[in-house]
Amino acid sequence: MKKVFVLFFILFTAFNIKAQDRKVADSLESIIGRLSTQKQYANNSAKSFSIDTFLVGVCGELIKLFHNVSFDSILFYGQKTLTISKPIAYEKGMALGYNSIGFYYVKTGKFELGKQYFNKALAISKKIKDDYGLCRSLTGLGFAENFKGNALSFHYEALKVAIENHIIDQIAASYHNIGEYYDNNHNPVAAADNYLKAIKINEQPGGNLHYLKMNYWSLGIVYENLLKHKKAIENYNHALKVAQQLHEKSAELNIMIMIAGSFGGMEQYDTAISIYLSSIKLAKELKRESLMYQAITNLGDTYYFTGRYKEALHYDTMAYNYYLNKDDYYATVVAINTGMVYTKLKDFKKALSYELDALAKTDSTNIEFLKWIYANLSEVYAGMGNYKAAYENYQLYKKSYDSLYNNENREKVLQLQLQSDFQKKESSLKAAQEKKDLQQRNIRNSIIAGLLLLSVFFVVVYRQRNRVKKEKERSDELLLNILPSEVADELKANGKLAAKMYNDVTVLFTDFVDFTGISETLSPEELVAEIHKNFTVFDHIIDKNGLEKIKTIGDAYLAVCGLPIENEQHAQCVVRAALEINEYVQNAQGKFKVRIGIHSGPVVAGIVGVKKFAYDIWGDTVNTASRMESNSEVGKINISATTYELVQHDFKCIHRGKINAKGKGDVDMYFVDNSRA
Q1: Closest Cα partner for 574 from 513, 492, 510?
Q2: What interhelical angle do 412-432 and 387-405 show, nearest 10?
Q3: What is the CA radius of gyration of the chain?
Q4: Which residues, in sequence order, are CB contacts of 191 under 8 Å at separation 6+?
């Protein structure tokens, strides 16, 4: 089993509050005490109201101070803010209180309860036109969706409000949140793009250093997931420098462990070991026991990879004793790891004890863990000479493996051959009880042959496993390249995809003007290179704006927004993407000029065919979008009246009047003003 090496941590870790911040908190809390005393002696309602609103302001500062430090403190001061604000109908304070309580519930995993409070805050912020509070409520609703549903729409809406009102810290925060959404939905390119936008803002004078640290940290994890360890380390180091600047020792510790994991991923084990040892020392100083034992677990892994099994056993045993009575992910990992080390040391009895302990800790639904435990048990039993148990556990491993990778026929011939060999062994062992010296020699030879076969078998299985894993990763990557991630997940889970109606989407068509004439002046290689250059940029633009590419047809490009994830801003996103495409083509001064058409309405989406299948869309909306494109002009974006109704408040448009469209008759059309994006 290839051991779990890179251990990921929750980004928004609850850090110990810094000493200087603790002093600030104490000062603010003492102010609350003094103001509460003064309020008792207030001789008129105006003075009392003034004290109360000032108290709310102090609570707001404490809420900011404890952000991502103490969720319980945020709940406490959020409730205190409500207690002060409700009796005096101070709506700005009420919105602050609701937002803070909603934040607490979301961060503690109670998403539906969090939504209720964020919606209350949202309604108040809209009513009193508090743009900052509005951003916080929309951001909170995005968090409450837990990277699903309308999360992206809420974060984009928060970004829009922040940009319109020049709320710089919220602009950066929204870019980071959008990056997180894409990261969690397997779109590393879009995730990195948004993290970089947040970094650019937070690196400016007056930028939020705490969030700059998180921006770099998150970008490092994106690269780590892509196995680009050098780039991951580069960004982790940026995050580490900011954490040191902020004197956030706990953050330094987390980042050091991530850096060590990246060096391990590059097989630079000596460097990884050195950093893990430093991390353990720092964790002891900070009394961060859980992080210390995570580093100890990883250190054991690293020694295992270098073949230093005694050192690996030392750290694995330390970790095992720590996690012994804990219901924790690491408890199972360490039990598996310790058993593997004992297997390498040929102490099969102890290895068996740890692997069985890991099996007892593992839930029956955790196929990934079960797969490795059964494989390890098979190897342990083989080492003990119990071939029947070895074979039975191999069968369980194979069943888990096939369940996990949906590959029922893999190694079937090899499995049947092994089964035959085991049956022959059992027959030989029975015969050994009835015969003397000659039969004893035959049994011994059979056992030796069986051991050799088993050794070869395990080498083949493990190599095959690694090869299959890489093939699966490549297969998933290719599948996500031709299908939306939600569609790919449904296809892999069910083996099919039912056609689905989407009532509110916007379709974009682009076409290169005089493509036939231009293509005659270029060689085939030049023509393909020019198309590829343009469509690659188009892909990036539509991905950035939340559109889904459907297909290219020759020199035509078709994309849509509002499916498979619904998006209330589908029309605005498409027009924004069209403006960027048009601007790129005009500035690139390449061979082609572009013509763009857009229409909004319902479509049906699904997968066509069973070979070289493709995700496609159908309906009159698609046909009308095509007519919009064919009736557009060079360098223009032509939209239908339906789309105009959706975007008229966001983009300046020029009415063209009624224009005859093939198969549609006279229809109203509008040009989007390219000067306004």
Answers
A1: 510
A2: 170
A3: 31
A4: 179, 180, 181, 182, 183, 218, 222
Long-range contacts of 534-541 (CB under 8 A, 24+ apart): 534/585, 534/588, 534/590, 534/592, 537/581, 537/584, 537/588, 538/510, 538/581, 540/189, 541/577, 541/580, 541/581, 541/584
659, containing H or E segment: strand 653-661
Evaluate whether 175 touches 159 at the Cβ level (below 8 Å): yes
Which tokens is 312 given?
């690996």
Q: What is the pLDDT of residue 323?
A: 83
Residue with tokens 């003064």: 38
3 state SS of 222: helix
Query: Measured between alpha carbons, how far is 556 from 594 in angstroms, rounded to an integer?
Result: 10
DSSP 307: T
More confident residue, 609 or 271: 271
Tokens 């009392």 found at: 48
Residue 260 CA to its chain's centroid (Å): 21
Token digits of residue 48? 């009392």
Residues 6+ positions from 453 with CB-CB distance below 8 Å: 418, 421
Q: What is the model's pLDDT at position 519?
A: 80
DSSP element (H, E) containing 618: strand 614-618
Average pLDDT of the residues in 520-524: 81
DSSP 16: P
3-state SS, residue 603: strand
Instruction: Output 28 or 336, whichever has higher pLDDT.
Output: 336
**Cα dihedral sign for 516, 520, 521, 527?**
positive
* 599 neighbors 619 (Cβ within 8 angstroms): no
Q: Which pLDDT does position 421 carry in this prediction? A: 39
Tokens of 154: 């809420």
HSE (side-chain half, CA atoms, 13 Å) at 534: 26
Mean pLDDT is lowest, of 45-49, 70-74, 353-357, 533-537, for 45-49
Q: Of the given ranges (117-131, 174-188, 392-406, 569-583), which has the lowest mean pLDDT? A: 392-406
Q: Give the span between the Cα atoms of 594 and 38, in whole angstroms.
A: 69
C-alpha–C-alpha distance, residues 128 and 280, integer Å = 51
> Can you point out the beta strands (E) in 496-555?
500-512, 548-553
- Is residue 106 a contact partner of residue 12, using CB atoms and an 8 Å limit? no
Work out the pLDDT band at 212, boundaries 50, 70, 90.
Answer: very high
- Picking from 260, 242, 266, 265, the residue whose alpha carbon sits closest to that of residue 252 is 242
Tokens of 564: 């498979």
With tokens 């082609």, the residue in question is: 592
- d(Cα 332, Cα 315) in Å, to the nearest integer? 15
Q: What is the pLDDT of residue 600?
A: 93
User: To the nearest 5 percent, what fractions of the chain are helix, strand and coil?
Assistant: 70, 10, 20
Residue of 71, 75, 38, 41 lying closest to 59 (CA atoms): 75
Instruction: Give the residue from 385, 381, 379 showing the smallest Cα distance to 448.
Output: 385
- Strands, E assignment, 400-514: 500-512
- Ramachandran region, residue 440 (left: φ > 0; alpha: ψ -120 to 50; beta: rest): alpha
Pairing of strands 500-512, 637-640: unpaired
* pLDDT at position 366 over 90: no
Whether the CB-CB separation of 81 and 54 falls below 8 Å is answered with no
CA 256, 261, 264, 265: dihedral to nearest 10 degrees? Answer: -140
- Give the rounded percent of residues in the chain with a pLDDT score beyond 90: 27
What residue type is 51 in one-letter code? I
Counted residue by residue, the chain has a size of 677
Q: What is the token pair recorded at 632?
A: 């557009």
Residue holding tokens 């029309």?
571
Q: How many CB atoms lie within 10 A of CB 87?
A: 9
CA distances from residue 200 to 159, 176, 215, 352, 420 in whole angstroms, order as listed? 15, 11, 10, 53, 64
**Could you give the maximum distance between any two Cα atoms of the chain, in Å?**
112
Q: Tell me, rounded to whole angstroms, the distance of Cα 528 from its chain centroid.
A: 34
